[in-house]
Amino acid sequence: MLYIRGMTDAGALRIGELSRRSGVSPELLRAWERRYGLLEPTRSAGGLRLYSLDDLARVQTMQQHLAQGFAAAEAAALTTRTARDDGIAAPAAKDELAAALLRFDDGAAHAAFDSLLAQFSIDTLLRDVVVPYLHELGERWERGEVSIAREHFASALLRGRLLGLARDWGRGIGPAAVLACAPGEQHDLGLLAFGLALRARGWRIVYLGADTPIASLADAVRSCDPTFVIVSAIDAGAFRRHAAELRQLAREARLCFGGAGAARTRVNADVLRLTGGPVDEAEQLTQLARR
Question: At what angle do helices 106-119 and 90-102 cross, to 10 degrees?
Fold first, then answer.
């Protein structure tokens, strides 16, 4: 089992670990809990307050609202409302974003995305808005219902917004993950979403992005000593073409294959396939990291 400082066997966080992961001082965390009911700790047998990963997610959402200029009381109200209402209004919000992207309306698309950030947690934003929209966009493009120009416009805008959310995601003391697209693979939106879902669970992200040579990936792995290495590809052939290099990499690190290509690729017992949604797979990897 990986031991993460400050965590109990049940996965609860002491306030010091919650502070380290979120970057918020223990004093301020206690104030948010006392004044706004932001946190919902339990008690250990010895009377210690223990916080969950849901508490961490609420702190991170609170920080996002504060960065957007909301007063603390307003930010807390938005955060707790998000915790209650996540997923209820997300489909309608997704439609508003999709309509703006379809008509090449940069300003409206950014405004819709900002509205989503103000209403929903990162998990909900990814699971109920971004990922479903991208799937629908890809399917419509394949059917000839959406032009290449519209697909490129939407992908570029969303990629920029996700990268904005990824700022400082390499900081912290949680487990580290190295994320890279296989050589020749240019599609990295799913990998970005997965990295954000991991970060929401306290991970440190080392992001290498599209079209990463395996030799370069191996160099990064030796430098970072990550808990997991994730290689993503839409085309299963990307994994087959570099099978020997990937087998060697799997001897040096805990290797995962992600993306649509992973579902069509045979893997050895020491390689994990991530074929579900970014949020679900981030949760799975987080559970594995605790073992």
Answer: 160
| C-alpha distance from residue 181 to each of 22, 156, 208 (Å) | 28, 17, 8
Domain's final residue, options 145, 165, 185: 165
Domain coverage including residue 97: 90-165
Residue where the block lists tokens 């950014």: 110
The total number of structural domains that make up the chain: 3
Q: What is the pLDDT of residues 236-261, one digit of tens each?
A: 999 999 999 999 999 999 999 998 88
Q: Which tens digits make up the pLDDT trace of 124-172?
A: 889 889 988 998 898 888 889 989 999 999 999 999 999 999 998 998 8
Q: Are 244 and 268 in contact (CB under 8 A)?
A: no
Neighbouring residues of 262: CB distance < 8 A, sequence distance ≥ 6:
232, 233, 236, 239, 273, 274, 275
Q: Look up residue 103 and give its DSSP letter.
A: T
Q: What is the DSSP string of 199-248?
A: HTTT-EEEEEESS--HHHHHHHHHHH--SEEEEE-SSTHHHHHTHHHHHH
Instruction: Identify whether the C-beta of residue 56 lies closer than 8 Å to the C-beta of residue 13.
Output: yes
The verdict on residue 212 lying in a domain is yes
Residues 150 and 252 in one domain: no
Per DSSP (E only), the strands in the chain are 42-43, 49-50, 176-181, 204-209, 228-232, 255-258, 271-274
Q: Are residues 198 and 278 in the same domain?
A: yes
CA separation, residue 76 to residues 25, 116, 204 (Å): 16, 16, 25
Measured over the CA atoms of residue 253, residue 19, residue 129 and residue 160, the dihedral's sign is negative
- 135 and 209 share one domain: no
pTM of full prediction above 0.85: no
